[in-house]
Write a structure and sequence with these properties.
membrane, two-stranded antiparallel sheet, single chain, transmembrane helix, 4 helices, transmembrane, MAPEG-like_dom_sf, mainly alpha, flat, 3% strand
Amino acid sequence: MNMTYRTGLFLQTLLPILLCVLYWHSPSTLTLLLAVIGTARVLYSAAHIHRNKLWGNVHFQNDQRTRSNAHFAGYISHWVMIVILLIGVVLIHQSMLPLSYLQLIAYTAFLGFMLRMVISDVLNTNV
């Protein structure tokens, strides 16, 4: 979505804040790690925006190239998640993986989401 850098940074800060609230509600090492990584990413984005004086500029994100990169990243992460789920089900059924099916689904969904973000970021920066 095309928006100013200031609005985009504000929306980026919502996820680390939510993760911090979740950490204080039920402490977990993974939640704390994700909150720290999210906070570092927001601080890096803020420094980049401030250094280049982009606060009021509009960040155009929706051209044809970025859309096709997002579709490609979604396609790749979709198939990776399917393969991981199939292998995970077999490993859980054979008692070789100490996870429940719900944990496998949750971890795979998180991995797919992160993989999609990384692939689309890499494709959009290597233009």
